[in-house]
Amino acid sequence: MFKNGLLVFCMFLFGRAVAQSDTLMEMILEEKIIIPKGYKKENIQTSRSFHVNKLSDLLKGESALFIKQYGASSLATSSVRGMSSSHTQVLWNGIPISSPSLGQVDLSQIHSSDFDQISLVYGGGEFGAYPGAIGATLFLDKRIHFTKRTHVAMSREFASYARNAGYSSLSIADSLYFVDASIQTLRSENNFEFYNTRTGKYESRRNAEAKSMDFQTNLAYKLKPNQVLNMGVWLTEGDHQIPRNLQMDFQDLARQKQSDESKRIFLSWEVKDEKQRLIVKSAYLQSRNRFDDQATPLEASTTLNMSYVQQARYLRRLNDNFKLHVGFDAENHSAETSTYSSDKVREFGLLSVALDYDKDQYSGVYLSLKSIYEGYDKFNTIYSIGGKYRYDKYDFYGHIASSYRAPSLNDMYWAPGGNPDLKPEKGWNGELSASRYLDKDKRLRLDVNNYHHLVDNWIMWQPSENAGYWSAQNVQKVYSRGLEIKVNWWKSIKNQVKLTQSLQLGVGRSEIISSFTTNKHTEGKDLIYTPKYTMQYFFEAAWKEVKFRWRSSVNSKVYTSTDNSAYMPGYSLSNMDIIFSSVVDEFIVGFNLGLDNVFNIDYQVVANQPMPRRTFHLGMSLQIAK
Predict the structure, then answer these.
(1) How many CB atoms lie under 10 A from the CB of residue 413?
(2) CB neighbours of 276 closer than 8 A, spacing ≥ 6?
(3) 0.85 exceeded by pTM
(4) Is the pLDDT of residue 588 over 50?
(5) Helix (H) or strand (E) holding 371
(6) What percent helix, strand, coil does the chain show, rounded to 5?
(7) Averaged confidence pLDDT in the chain
(8) According to the 3-state scheme, what is the secondary structure of 235-279?
(9) CA gap 82, 96 in Å, rounded
């Protein structure tokens, strides 16, 4: 009652204040993401609408994230700057969608084509977001507009290993309403050839078939020139077999598989005038998964997660230089599963206050304070201060912030091994960046970023002493630091050929600086599955209706044991695309021919989980815009 009553109060108070303004302006839907100054933001390239992708595949090719992938179409999570997968928060139109049980998101279960704005903010700097994003926040957004337009898009893709994917969308908009719906399907047998390190032979992957369906719709209506009501629905379902690791993958061993489905819906109301803006959201999220290992006599396990999310954001321009941001979040999460002794419920609230100062377009300071109410009886406070400054031709920005993440429900209640006495992870993070154009024509740009993360009470599952199972424990303090360098270059030749190149280098280390267990030999060692060196290269040449794209990436070796005695070797991958698109009246026709893993490299991201070798794909698309 407390959280619902507070939201009603916000809607009444702020809504009345805004609605009575005498200088209402025509609604302009601004970017929904409020990024504090001093945080690095990266927009993810989503222009390959005809190339139907899993979000994990898109991020692997278009960002500097390290994607920890357990084979094709299997579990995929992200590691940002040496942090764990639980340190990446994923927001769908501002709503957190991480599993309450796992505390993370399986990126292989999300289709990327449904979103026209995907961005990554390092350090978790989004205002008002629940502070679990120690590493980064990933935003998945759908833009809405009120310009008279009808748009239809269809695409189909065929690829190696019996991969068949399709995407269709319809968007209709007028001065008062916006309607958008899309559906995406994907199926693959994933019977790729790989080198089996156990048998020393090339074999075909078996028991790896996957299929999924994704549906989204957005309905928006302009109540008044300055008020918008918006509803979003997102439904997913999927079935995939889980191939066993190579040390257990015997021909006569029965299959294991998992079924997933989710239902997500939100309703938002937004009102603004020249000086202030209010956004109120309410969301319901449900996810269900069923895991069945046919090699065991145990019954299939089922987990049901349900979440209720309430949000309010109020932004006010105090004068030409200062803006005030106030936010309130209330969330209720529940989990029903046979792996807990009983059903579990978690509640928390979050109050955020921030002051934003702009000296001019290039310089300013941002201060924020967040109070976290775990179960409405445990209080924690975190802060952030960031800024940007231009000196001569150089742009500087940076921040320092405290961080906080509560353990997941599995960490506390999984039977056996859950630990209800776990402490939350706490620490701080900071970064300092500089950038400038290196030529007078602004075609060559250099960006340099230095980051630091310190996390205390790091939560990890490991073997229990005098017990035959693993348990969750606060085991160590981790210090991650590194340097990121990115160079972007653009050139046009006789206004006919456009060339684009980018090179990004990363050097970092995630070190265990203190161990709270008897395993003191891990002190000074690197965290497992965190590469020290990474490189991403992108090249595009565009001439008239044809584009050629080349991407290369390099990941150094990663350790697979806490004492760093075992490791997975590094690898380098290259992908190539040839794209053709032509505009005929109101039609846009596109074709794409691509080759992934051009040099046919044998590699594994996770030990004993092989990845596909060379893969071909052919895509076709048709768009109609009126």
Answers:
(1) 23
(2) 14, 17, 18, 314, 315, 316, 317
(3) yes
(4) yes
(5) strand 364-374
(6) 5, 60, 35
(7) 87
(8) EEEEEEECCCCCCCCCCCCCCEEEEEEEEEEEEEEEEECCCEEEE
(9) 22
**Tell me: the pLDDT tens digits for 231-285?**
999 999 999 988 888 887 665 666 789 999 999 999 999 999 989 999 999 999 9
> Which one, of 19, 7, 8, lies nearest residue 276 by Cα?
19
Each residue of 319-368: pLDDT tens digit? Answer: 999 999 999 999 999 999 988 888 999 998 899 999 999 999 899 999 99
CA atoms within 13 A on the CB side of 207: 19
Q: Which helix (H) or strand (E) holds 62?
A: helix 55-62
3-state secondary structure of 361: coil
**Taking 50 as the threshold, does the pLDDT of residue 9 lie above it?**
no
Mention every residue, 6+ apart, whose C-beta is less than 8 A from residue 5: none
Q: SS3 for 191?
A: coil
Instruction: Give the burial string for 50-82 (b: 16+ CB within 10 Å, else e).
Output: bbbbbbbbbbbbbbbbbbbbbbbbbbbbbbbbb
Report d(CA 16, CA 257) in Å as an integer. 53
Q: Which among 544, 571, 27, 596 is positioned nearest to 277, based on CA atoms?
A: 27
Integer Cα distance of 602 and 610 in angstroms: 8
How many C-beta atoms surround the C-beta of residue 439 within 10 A? 9
Task: Give me the half-sphere count of Cα atoms (radius 13 Å) on the Cβ side of residue 54.
Answer: 25
pLDDT in tens, 142-184: 888 899 999 999 999 999 999 999 999 999 999 999 999 999 9
Instruction: Judge whether residue 52 has pLDDT over 50.
Output: yes
- What are the Cα distances from residue 349, in Å, to 226, 380, 402? 29, 11, 18
415 secondary structure, DSSP code: T
DSSP H or E stretch at residue 310: strand 301-317
Strand partners, 623: 153, 588
**Cα 399 from Cα 453, distance rounded (Å):** 12
* pLDDT average, residue stretch 425-453: 93
- Cα 50 to the chain's mean position, in Å? 21
Specify the DSSP class assigned to residue 198: T
Closest CA to 109 of 287, 303, 302: 287
- 557-573 average pLDDT score: 92
Residue 9 and residue 475: Cα distance in Å, rounded?
43
pLDDT for the residue numbered 227: 94
Residue with tokens 């940007």: 388
Length of the chain: 626
- CA–CA distance, 276 with 15 (Å, rounded to integer): 10
For residue 200, give both structure tokens.
């020393």
pLDDT for position 2: 40
Residue 66: C-alpha distances to residues 88, 170, 226, 529 (Å): 12, 34, 42, 9
Q: 3: helix, coil or strand?
A: helix
d(CA 1, CA 201): 63
